[in-house]
Amino acid sequence: MKVDKLIEKRCWRLQRKLSRIKNDAGEASSSDGCGWLGNMEDEPDIPPVKQVVVAICAMEKKSGSKPMKEILTRLEEFEFIRTVIFPEEVILKEPVEKWPLCDCLISFHSKGFPLEKAQAYTDLRKPYIINDLDMQYDLQDRRVVYSTLQREGIELPRFAILDRDSKDPSKRELIEGEDHVEVNGVIFNKPFVEKPVSAEDHNIYIYYPTSAGGGSQRLFRKIGSRSSVYSPESRVRKTGSFIYEDFMPTDGTDVKVYTVGPDYAHAEARKSPALDGKVERDSEGKEVRYPVILSNAEKLIARKVCIAFKQTVCGFDLLRANGKSYVCDVNGFSFVKNSSKYYDDCAKILGNMILRELAPTFHIPWAIPFQLDDPPIVPTTFGKMMELRCVVAVIRHGDRTPKQKMKMEVRHPKFFALFAKYDGYKDGHVKLKKPKQLQEVLDIARGLLAEIEQKRADPETEEKKGKLEQLKSVLEM
What we know:
Layout: H1 2-18, H2 25-28, E1 35-37, E2 49-57, H3 60-63, H4 66-75, E3 81-85, H5 88-93, E4 104-107, H6 115-125, E5 128-129, H7 135-138, H8 142-151, E6 159-162, E7 174-176, E8 180-183, E9 186-189, E10 192-196, E11 204-207, E12 216-223, E13 226-231, E14 242-246, E15 253-260, E16 265-271, E17 290-291, H9 296-308, E18 313-321, E19 324-332, H10 340-358, E20 377-380, E21 383-386, H11 413-421, H12 424-427, H13 435-453, H14 459-463, H15 465-476
Parallel strand pairs: 2-3, 2-4, 4-5
Antiparallel strand pairs: 1-2, 6-14, 7-8, 8-9, 10-11, 10-14, 11-12, 12-13, 15-16, 15-18, 16-17, 18-19, 20-21
Helix pairs in contact: 4-10, 13-15
């Protein structure tokens, strides 16, 4: 009887996994937003199990992108998670009261997205938030971004802000010379970088000194195979507010870092748009990216950026120059474009993060697994610290002098006599290491070279002259 009941229960669970109930937004959620699994009429003895509804609230171009689809597909593999995407038309036209219900919201700003409506929705429904919405306003202003990075002690290129909108004259002083600018008393020699204060404006200029030909490189969002063009114009822009900063020599690469929580960061390098403006693409037309291993200091930077801006999923740019790593831009919500490993890790971390937060609230029978976003913390005499589980090392000695070898084929009777003298025929080989033995070999070599000089040697010995001279030189060292 117990076996039959167990089989029946397992069959029901399998059926539950294979067929998810598809309802509209109003039917798919309870009053608290959580979906249900199970058929109450068919299985009266088995209590219904709730699902956490994870909603994606973003513009269609972002929510329907390949990376998002890859991650949502993997999130759906969690037994207690169901995902839903808010249609763009609903986001733009419907009041937030008519938006679908959810328990967890993944929402992020892009061009045209009504961030204020998303905030109103979270105030109304109180879902668990993955990326803080208030901080996304800060990410739209490079001045606030740089101020936050400075406050967190994160390395930045030396910079100054020219704020032409400020009523304070001391914040909008600009003196331009042939090969430099002075911004509010701070001098920047060319090459230097000029960035609009709005993070939505990607028209960044790099100005070159006259010794390098002058002019400027004008960066912009990728258009086809171009990401920048050269201009002969050497004068800075006279309208708008800008950040001026030192140009950092990076050997032609930029490092893009993508976090998923404070303890996970994926990094890639790409060809810098400041080089020649041509985008490197592979056979499939995608921009070529190179894997990057972050240093411990860079991992700490990633953690600080993630926490400071309250963005669980966050992308930012690193410049490696002069033996240091500098953050030059924080992009907010951003995914790796083409990495199955990243998609797997991202979905696992997000899924476990969501269930850890919401499973107890909805009494979902979910066991908390150990994941990358859950580092081993142990109490010590210095407070709580991460525990070192193991050290893996691949070690090869490097304190041996390379062997100096010389090979020579000999057929002269004098060598065979020496071979016989030291019982070479008995063992099939002979090792001559003692000084007296090596002196005998040297004497034979000298004698044969003398015969060659006196033209008394046979033709075969004469052919070995080069080898004999080499043997003589080695033994005389």
